[in-house]
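re: that chain from earlier
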Amino acid sequence: MKRARVWVGLSLQAWLVLHATSASAEEALAAAPATPARVDDAEPGPPAAVTTDGPGPTLQPETAAPPPQPEPQPSAAPAAAPRRFRRWTPEEIARVRAALARQRLALKNQVKRTPGDAHARFTLALEVSAISRDDEGWRRFDRGTLSPRFGLAVAYDLVPIHKQLTLLVELGAGLENDESHDLLGLGTSAELSSQTLHAGLGLRWDPLRWLSPHIRAWGGASLFQLDIRGTNQAFETGHATSVFGALGAGFLLHTPPRLFESDTGKLAAFQLGLLVEAGYALRSQLDFSLRTQPDARRIEVIDASLGRLSLTGWYLRFAFVIRF
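^ sequence. v structure.
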């Protein structure tokens, strides 16, 4: 009877121990991380103690070991964000441009410059002038009261009178051409052409680097030819010469000196400009007379006068100027 009681007590204690151990294992598995822990890292718990209570030994349940803590894993580095290009602000663009300008200026200053002579002594002018014709005889020509003259002039600076005043000399040539219909009757035409040579003296003032007023006294001679066509008679061509003197004033708008200068000093005096001048010319009159060719008719016409033409009047001159 006593043995049976001891066996029942031992069986009951064994069942309690097994039940407690299985519960502790389930709790440990629930709290454990997904990564299985190494067996070697687990610390063994203290062995179960055996006690005797009363007639038989009593088994004490083992103390549950704390669940193993997961090892700290090194945090993974964040993935690099894709590189994005941003737009520059206006302030940044202005700073970059200023830096580039400073670099260009520094490089330009490093180049050794040889300054050239900026005094332009020669002036080349391609000109067109409007010549006033106030005489009554000019109304028979198609040009009316104005006749164009195309010419070329070359000027040279003689001596500088003052820092801003220069005396210059000029030579030039010009061409004129006027036509008339029905001058001597129906079906006739006349052409009056001229070649002009002139010379002059001028005084130029340079108050500004781009403006040069001037005055000019000039004179010369013009050779005129009168050709008549469309008549039954063969007339010789009439010739006449007119001398003149004129006085004019104007100004020259031109580019500043050294605008086209190179690093070696070339083209320092090269300038481009536009000249405007107005003045008045006194000219001798033209007197034409016709003469028939020999054997053209029985009675020869000698010195048949066509009248006189006055050339005195004002003029307006425009010129494209190159100075060097």
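The CA atoms of residues 219 and 245 lie 4 Å apart.
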